[in-house]
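for the writeup, i need someone to sanity check this before i put it in the appendix. the sequnce is what the collaborator sent (i think, or maybe the updated version? ugh). structure was predicted straight from it, no edits. if anything looks off just tell me and ill rerun, i have time this weekend
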Amino acid sequence: MRISRRHMLQAGVLGTSLSLSNFLRLQAEEGKPDSGRSAILVFLGGGPAHQDTFDLKPKAPSEYRGLFSPIQTAVPGVEICEHMPRLAKRADQYALIRGITHSLADHGLGTRYVMTGNLPTPVVDYPMFGSIVSHEYPSKQDLPSFVSIDRPVEGPGYLGAEYGPLSTGEKPRFGQPFRVRGITLDDGLTVQKYNLRRRLRDDIDTAFKGYESLDDAVRGLNRFSEQAYQIISSTRSRNAFDLSLETDREVDRFGRHEFGQSAMLATRLIEAGVRFVTVLLEGWDTHQDNFNTLGRELLPSFDQSLSAMLDRLGERGLLESTSILVTGEFGRTPKINGNAGRDHWSRAMCALLAGGAVRPGQVIGSTNDKAEGPVGTGFSPDDLAATFLQNIGVDPKKEFAANVGRPITVIRNGSPIPGALS
């Protein structure tokens, strides 16, 4: 029986290089211009209560306004929640978008809508923002273009798996070694030993060279495995993921908690040259005990770590080239339920934009006196997506070839929010 190279690959002969190369296929498309731009998406999974964070309603009846009080920010007339004092002092560094509205109060569908800027449909699988940026602006050959800390929020859609994120597989935790799947060389595997495996792989490539013409996917593995090798053997790439290189001062600034470590890692990756990083802060699905969960846990860590991210990017001259979007999949009900919580509510939500061409120190849009819905027509997730992508340097009306038999516009129905960008 003749053994094909595909069988050898399935048997795992290529080891570490094959697992990493699955994340890297076709990421570095030759001839792409270097935009010099990057982006961070902070996804607040579960759906944060807009009226308990950036859109408080202190004059509403008690069953609507909740337990939190507003505080004045650095921008006259702009108030946010009392549990975010650091962000209040930095309100001149970001813009708030209030009155975002849609109709998908389901976690899965809402996430897909907000993370792609296109209404979900069974006909087209739309790519999330990071995959679009990875397609348009790949990183240097020894860096992944798109990293999702922990797990992917959404997938690459019609662009294909090669533009999906390199997911770390877990969140970094203070005081524990952080191992990145596919980059960290575990179980005694050193770069020297990896080089030996690579040479073995090259021998296998030579032995089965004649068979590669039969299969495009197999034929492309050489290129992807080469990039995998460059990442694994790159000091720059390995150092980017190494949080032990940070000083105690920086660790304290970001916070010795999961989100703080994730935000610090995201900042390091941008500094190293990664194009797009997704950070998750989950737990906002507060059907019960909303105010204790937010006031004691989520808001203090969010306030500390996002402020640290803004400060560090600003100090290192990267805020002008790094677009930041903070959002969840929807908001929460205006009226508090019987369990001191708020339920799903997609008719009103808010988002934060910073960096790049964002015009900071302003609030765009508003909701009514009970935070039930936008005043006027509001903004759609499509509009928010178009704004974010344009700020990164991607034309939201650009067309991509897809496997549905026709070109597809990146953001079909949305337009950049007027006044958000300079």
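The CA atoms of residues 183 and 344 lie 38 Å apart. Confidence is low (pLDDT under 50) at residues 1-32, 185-225.
thx in advance!!
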